[in-house]
Amino acid sequence: MTRDPAHLEIVTLQSHALQQHACFSDNGTLAWILSALSISSKIIANKVRRAQLDDVLGAAGAENVQGEQQQKLDVIANDVLLRTLGEREGVAIVASEENEEPVIIRNQAQGERKYCVLFDPLDGSSNLDVCGGVGTIFSILLQDRRSGKPEDSLLQPGVRQVAAGYVLYGPSTVMALTLGQGVDLFLLDPAIGAFVRVAEKVRIPKANKSYSLNEGNRLTFPVGYQKYLDWAQANNYSSRYAGAMVADVHRTLLKGGVFMYPPTAKAPNGKLRLMYEANPMAMLIEQAGGKALASPTQRIMEVVPTDIHQRTVVILGSGDEVDHVVKHLQ
Ligand code: P6P
């Protein structure tokens, strides 16, 4: 009897990264950065699980650069990521949703390959008080040697990402990661403290009658989105919305459908941030065979950024489902 080879090997995130690092010929620099993201996620997962017990739920009493109420765990998660990434030689600059300015960790000596890491440390943190899904989203760019000021290196379009991923802290802790060669999923096994690969080269279903957006904003959506919603509801679509991008995108990646954050009266350019929410999610969805648009005629990853905290419209998911939305917008 021959066993399914997929059940023969046990591949951890670390061994996966080392296997893949050959694609980068960077002496394992990127693999070291991924290990910093891995340890950060394990620490954050523990903090999230124990939040109520350790009395770190609720607001921190300050606003972040976006003018949003910071949760105590936003600050904790941000600090963990800054400290672990700061220790990695290969990291030149980090930028976070929680910090107005990027943190320049080290300048690039001639010839050395350095990376920029952008992240939303705890996306959807307002869900914490009600035990909802929350997540960490990260995007990795190669430092652009030609840019004058180091921080200008960050203002690269999403097509220049070398890696992207998220960690969803839900009933289990799962990381979705792409290094540009497809999307792999890793589950944190708390018994051994390692992320174990549970799915390779994930493909998003081509279609699924499901849409995900905050319908409370419906009356302020541009009319094309309202027409799409009328069409979808007339065609027996279901609606799913967790209010946390990582949870909504993970469901869309696995089950198919479309996730959107359209323009609203409150957020005329969309609410989600291009650099550390939309771009990494767009890379994952496109790598899984889906589509990720900022408008009917522009991919999210083609938007040339002018500010690290700029926002964008997001329409992403199964190719057929994104097409149905676009058809109503044009
Ligand atoms: P709304 C969470 O605050 C977040 O940034 C994303 O995770 C999520 O998709 C979106 O905002 C939810 O926004 O306006 O529907 O509450």
Descriptive report:
It is a single chain. This protein has 330 residues and is an alpha+beta fold. It folds into two domains: 5-199, Fructose-1,6-Bisphosphatase, subunit A, domain 1 (Fructose-1,6-Bisphosphatase, Chain A, domain 1, 2-Layer Sandwich), CATH 3.30.540.10; 210-329, D-Maltodextrin-Binding Protein, domain 2 (3-Layer(aba) Sandwich), CATH 3.40.190.80. Helices cover 28% and strands 26% of the residues. The longest helix has 21 residues, at 29-49. The chain starts with 12 loop residues before the first helix and ends with a helix. The mean pLDDT is 92. The chain binds 6-O-phosphono-alpha-D-fructofuranose. 6-O-phosphono-alpha-D-fructofuranose binds next to α5.
